[in-house]
Amino acid sequence: MSEEKKWNDDEILDIGSVDEEDFDPFGDDDFELESQQHEEKKAEEKKAKEKKLAEKKPPQKAESKEETPSNPLEAEISAAAEKDAETARDGLFSKPPVFAYAGVTEDVTDTSVTFDELRIAKSEDFPELDDGKRVSWTVEYGKITKPVPSPRKKTVAELKSEIETSKEFLDSLKKAKDKSPSCKLVPKVTAQSKGKMPAYKGVFPSFEEAEQSGKMISLFPSGDGNVYEMRKTEMGRFITPVSETNAIRKVRAGFTPALPLIPAGVLLEILRFFKYMAHKGSYEALANIYWDKQAEEFVVDIPEQKVSRVSVSSRLSDAFDSGRYIHYMDIHSHNNMNAFFSKTDDHDEKAARVYAVVGKISGFFPEIKVRIANSRSFVEIDPSVVFESVAAVRDFPEEWKNAILMESDEADKKLAFLKQLVGSKDLGTLSQTLQTFLEKGLI
Q1: Which of 157, 164, 202 is CA-nearest to residue 180?
Q2: What is each CA distance from 31 to 20, 25, 35, in whole angstroms?
Q3: Is 286 part of any domain?
Q4: pLDDT digits (tens, 9 = 90+) for 220-237
Q5: Could you tell me if 432 and 365 lie in one domain?
Q6: CA Rg, the chain, in Å?
């Protein structure tokens, strides 16, 4: 029988302070814990290493919100444009805005007024601005156009400042050629409402339609050229001529040409021809003026004619077919007599056309009268409606301009105004009056 081996306590391996039933000699809990601790330690070492490297690197500049131009020259040009625009804008702060309406411009020195107060101040000269409900405002400042939302509350200074301090205005100044634009205050009159015709009243093209309408009051034209009003009451039917009424639009007789003005050179050629005929024996003569639709120019034709000192009989030329040419005007002379349309002219001039007569042809300034014919009715018109002025600007030697010095002086304008006002030709007296007014601050 063999001897039992005896173990000392210090030779016993303690593998854990756990109960016998909880102890598992093949478990891997300790291994997992050791692995986890190893990974955490490794991560901490890596983090410390990265931190150490980051401390050694120089600090990076923050990225710019705006892209820097890749071209240095482009960057300098952009910066210069920005600076120029800012300088121009700063100079505009003190520049007064301008009231602009109906061809009139005037500096507005008191910018503390509202747009409505400005309207009231200007309504004395422009009555159409009197009704504030029908007036709207816009501000035109360089390329910026801005409506005025509340004319009664918004002052001129406020809106001008809003535009000047905006980025949109600064950007527009960079691109604009004019670095000193005017701030224009522009009123606009909206369409006025027209009165509505009441139900009991009407306008009709004939008496028959007015009679059948059943309206108490009716207006209609008559064959005698007048307008009549018919009123039906319990007493009976009243018909009277109407001298004036708002129910029918007023029409003014006249002529609106669809063609250009007849050139002054054409008229002068005709006048020279008439003067030749007058010198030959005080004969009258006739010229017809056509519009060439293809060449787009006026053509003068002297038709075959039999003339005397008091009459002209002519035959129209066959060369001017109506497909290409428009017979626009007949113009004839009265030699050295006055320019007037005779009874013979009234009888002959029946076509819808323009007619002219020239008198006192041998005088320095001949007389010219012009009229239109329409359905046996004649209306005299001003010659300037159809003729270019004989004083129209023409070519002249260029060197003539070199002798002229044009001067525009405010005092000259005021002097001209006083001259008109006083009606005097004594410039010395007017000059003294002007100086007195200036000294007293009256103008």
Answers
A1: 164
A2: 20, 13, 6
A3: yes
A4: 999 888 899 999 988 999
A5: no
A6: 48
